[in-house]
Every structure is written in structure tokens, then in C-alpha cells.
Amino acid sequence: MSTTAFWDEPSATDTSGTTKLQSRSHVPGDPFGLGNTSVTYLFSDASDNNATCQFYITVMKSNTTPPVISNCPADQYIELDFGKMSTTAFWDEPSATDTSGTTKLQSRSHVPGDPFGLGNTSVTYLFSDASDNNATCQFYILVKKSASPYKSIVISTVTLVTTIVIFALLWWCKKRAVRQEKQPSALPGLELSQQGVILQAYNIKK
């Protein structure tokens, strides 16, 4: 990006009556880019005495407002199908407008339908205007693994076995409690040794 500059060229006089333009770095009508550029004229006389004229051409942007981006997509979260290494992602592409009326898509890192592997991938769109002002749209495609179907089967099996074991333990405890309730209590009027004999006899009959 550049523009042309014009000026009235300098001249020189000398007591000797003779001067010569030895060199000049630029001439009127030359192109100048953004920033400061030194312009130098070198004059000399017959005795090789020199004199220099130096000035600067400063070029600035007339438009410093970057383009305005519309419809920059939000981050996407995608679950990768089991057994696959990548998946495709789709989005509505962003656009840009500018006060100058001119915008250009300078670059984009991906396009809708591209494959994306596991992890986070940055997607970037770069827009510019006629004055080289830039604006960027950036979002992420985040791909993660889906749960293994075999893992679900294992979890379901473990849950079923655990449930069966718990019910079996509850049934056994309940049955044992019923059997204990059927045991005869100590009979009144009998000595401890006699009660032991009766309990043993009861157990034998059972």
C-alpha cells in the first residue's frame, strides 16, 4: 500500500558561483509507503564542500477502523463415534463489512466439512479492508470420545450381579431370623442343665 508525494525541489548557491546536485534519494512523484521516509538532497561546490537538504514524507492511514465481522460461529462440541479417528464439522461462515465499502477474506484455516480429530482445533477467518485494517473471527471445534458400548454392558452386568447378591443376602438373613424365632425359650421351673437337655432334644427332633 503506497501513495505518491510531490514537492518543490531545493536548489543551492555558492560564493564560487558553481554548485552541483550530487545526489537525491527521491524525486517528486515517487511512491511512499506507510510510515516516515527520509528524502535527501546533496549539493557540492567546486571545492567539494557539501550541503545537505533533508526532509521526511510521512504516510498515515486515512482509515484506521477495522472491518466489522458478522455471524462469527460459537465453539462446537462434537462427540466422536466409537472406533473412529476423526469427524466432520459444519458451520455458517462469517462475513465482514467496512466503512470503506470494501472488505476481503484474506485467509481461513478451515472450511465447513473439514475433518477434525480428537482435541481442540482453532478455526480462524481473517478479513481486511482497502487500508489493510484487519479483523479476525476465531472459534474452536472440540472433539471428544464417545462412551464405549462395551463399558455400558460391563456396568450393567456388574449392577445386575450386585443386585442379585444383595437380594440373596436379604433372603438368607430373613430366613435365618425366622428359624431363630422358632427356637423354644427357656421353660419355667427347669434348671439350666435341664433346659439344655430339652433344647438338645428339640433340635434332634427337628
From TrEMBL:
PROSITE patterns: HYR
Residue ranges, compositional bias (Polar residues): 12-25
Coiled-coil zones: none
Transmembrane segment boundaries: 153-173
Name of the protein in question: Hyalin
InterPro entries referenced in this protein's UniProt entry, alphabetically: HYR_dom
Highest classification ranks of the organism: Eukaryota, Metazoa, Echinodermata, Eleutherozoa, Echinozoa
Keywords: Membrane, Repeat, Transmembrane, Transmembrane helix
Residue segments, region Disordered: 1-25
Start and end residues of each HYR domain: 1-61, 62-145
Pfam families: HYR (PF02494)
Highest taxon of the lineage: Eukaryota
